[in-house]
Amino acid sequence: MGTRTLFLFLLAFTTCACSNTKHLAKGETLFTGSKVIISDDEASRKERKILINDMVALVRPKPNTKLAGMRVKLYLYNAAGNPKKNKGLRRWLRNKAGEPPVLASTVNLGMNKDIMLNYLLNRGFFFAKGTATAKVDSNKRKTTAIFNIATGPQYTINKTFLVKDSSAINHCIDSTFRATLLKEGAPYNLELIKAERVRIDKELKDRGYYYFKPDYLLVIADTSLGNNKVNMHVQLKQEEIPPEAFTRYSINDIYIYANYRLNGKNTDTSKASDVIYDGYHIVGPKKAYKPLIFSNALLFEKGDEYDRASHNATISRLINLGTFKFVKSRYEPVNDSLLNVYLYLTSYPKKSIRMQIGALTQNDNMAGSQASISWKNRNSFKGAEEFQVKVHGGFELQYSGIARQSNIYNYGAETGLSIPRFIVPFINIQTSNSSLPHSIVKAKYNYEAQLNLLSIKSYSVSYGYSWKEGLHKGHQLYPINITYVKTDTFGTLSQKNTYYSNLVFNGLIIGPTYEFTYNSQVGPPRVHSFYFNGLIDFSGNILGLAQKANFDKNPQGILGTKYAQYMKFQPDFRYYYRLSDATTIASRALIGLGIPYGNSHELPNIKQFWAGGNSDLRGFPSRLVGPGTYSEYAISHSNARYVQTLGDIKLEANVELRQHLYKFLNWAAFVDAGNIWLYNDNPNLPGGQFTKNFYKELAADAGLGLRFDFKILLLRLDLGIPIRKPWLPENERWVIKDIQFADPTWKKNNMTLNIGIGYPF
Fold it and tell me: Residue 8 carries which DSSP code?
């Protein structure tokens, strides 16, 4: 941005700031917001900060919104004037892009003060007092609301009692009362009282009390103790509870409408053509589904006591089958203690076809496109088995840059069958109540060619299992994994000053993989969230031991084909700290450890790690950082270079501040650090082997980014620059002092723009 452009930009925003009040009617001022002052110190400093933020948020009306400190929407509203036409740019600016001024005359100070005091009352500050005044700046025609609050002491819970009676429902409540949320010493809080009523209701629903409601509970606070203490008394509203709410219900008949259509023509209670299987009534004109899938999915049967947890988990299991678009339920009393259950299942179309096409841009001056078409059958063998066939293709072309790279073309096909149950019985495998386990068979073929250099063909088949253990934990185990890789080279391994010998692998990869995922982000937003993904990948271990394979002295194979032998571990840990609704700090630590041995000197190319790219080290070119102190990046303008540099070991750490700006627009500031290394020495990549000095060989970058969050798609732009270059002499690797934003040559060689889809982590 030039000096003149920057001056005009700042002038426009200054004009925006100064002109927003000149359009106000005589005697009116602009309401610019509120300030809450807590005048006593009864609450802790941390608590006062929370109270102030909450009370400011309660004030109505809210002031005009700001962008970068300016009321841009109000400026657009004023700039549009009073359009005479019902449509056009001016009307759009005024009514859509802009917003009218929030006048101080519309702010009821007394009412807002009372709302704040009521909020404090609900938080246990029973004797809070306050005043409200308006601070008027006549020159700028602006008004700020000032609320001066004295909270007084906050009451805390002394003890919580259940008012007992002789009813069975009261006995059930008493048996769960140790888990009460109204703990001794906790501050009095109306929201906590509401949560306690919901907790008791859930416990009762899980014990058969189908018609019970939280409103049937009364919580009384006794403040007569003194010393700012209250006793909490929980009791049933005996006179308001209907007889059915005192009754524990059991399940009678269960009717499953497997072909229910949302067209208003179904008769809910029709039981014609039902088939009884395992105690369930399967109703429908067509036998589109094997009854076995319902027997596996449902977690209750005739004679069971009603349990809302089992009901909710059953609905979730049916939806997670992927076959049913909608699942509705209805309970109908048969007598004083029995309920009939009706489940209405609306299916997706059995077969579907999907096409996708998109553009991509890499940060090494490569751009291209990817396209795919897939066909899916959601009920292949009438047991909710999902069969899918997919073909894809794409290309990457270099559009600029001094060092020329080969264009890349790829295509492939894959097919898979997912069956919603364990085919081979497992013992003591714990699965989530809300998700069924799946047995999976997959086959894949992929072809990738780098023009005039090489082509890599890979064929793979695998069989395994996927299941969830609770809401946050997931497992994937593939005991059978076979991949065959064939590399064809065009000419020598060094052609046109481009080296790619490190990409050549011909042979088999045979071995199991296991992956564990933990994600605490599932559910409501939390201040602290964690994500962990751990991968274990073995190949050729038993074969190598049996054949006493050795890469140098005794290489072995199967039917004349070499196989890889290695152990690979990859833990990926992420932590998210939610500072506010608009601001989050995200961090990641990734360790990749590949140990080639026996029949292998290094990991196969498709199993190795790389560094650099739009979700990795964003200040460096894609897949060209390291290994170690070797730098393809440093010699990228010389006469010799590698297509990619890969490694057997990887360390990476990232920290990113994410903040919401306006509607779909967010921004981020980030720092990345990491590198890759070789497990064994390779003379063609000097300085690439992992040593005890690895921490001195870390690359680092920093940058800023924009995120365009369109809900169904998040487009990410990240601009990164190197701040540490491990290939330089050891005392010269920090290059922050060398940053020269005004130098075109420095910018060309160091600033990297990344375009990506979704968050990097």
Answer: H
**pLDDT score at 754:** 85
Other Cβ atoms less than 10 A from the Cβ of 688: the count is 27
Once rounded to an integer, what is the mean pLDDT over residues 515-542?
A: 92
> In this predicted model, what pLDDT tens digit does every residue of 353-390 receive, in sequence order?
999 887 665 545 566 778 999 999 999 999 999 999 99
Closest by CA to 628, choosing from 726, 728, 731, is 726
Domains of the chain and any CATH numbers? 9-64+101-150 (3.10.20.310), 156-246 (3.10.20.310), 250-347 (3.10.20.310), 522-761 (2.40.160.50)
User: Can you tell me the mean pLDDT for 502-507?
Assistant: 82
Taking a C-beta distance cutoff of 8 angstroms, is the pair 65, 31 a contact? no
d(CA 74, CA 76): 5
The more confidently predicted of residues 588 and 757 is 588
Which DSSP string corresponds to 225-288?
T-TTEEEEEEEE-GGG--GGGGPPPEEEEEEEETT--SSS---TT--TT-EEETTEEEE-SS--
Q: Which residues have CB under 8 Å from 372's CB, separation 6+?
A: 355, 356, 357, 390, 391, 392, 393
Nearest Cα to 29, choosing from 146, 134, 111, 109? Answer: 134
From the centroid of its chain, how far is CA 67?
A: 27
Q: Which two tokens stand for residue 341?
A: 């259950």
Q: What percent of the chain has pLDDT over 70?
A: 89
Output the six-digit token pair for 451.
């023009």
CA dist 20 to 16, 66, 324, 359, 539, Å?
A: 6, 12, 54, 42, 69
The residue count of the chain comes to 761
Is 146 within 8 Å of 35 (Cβ atoms)? yes
DSSP code for 7:
H
Three-state helix/strand/coil letters over 110-136: HHHHHHHHHHHHHCCCCCCEEEEEEEE
SS3 403: coil
Q: Where are the beta strands (DSSP E) in 597-648?
A: 641-642
- Average per-residue pLDDT for the chain: 87
Worst-scoring range by mean pLDDT, 154-163, 490-499, 550-559?
A: 490-499
pLDDT digits (tens, 9 = 90+) for 52-72: 999 999 999 999 988 767 888
Chain centroid offset of residue 257 CA = 34
Q: What span, in angstroms and rounded, lies between the C-alpha atoms of 433 and 468?
A: 9
Can you give the pLDDT at residue 79?
84
- Residue 518 pairs with which residues in a beta bridge? 473, 532
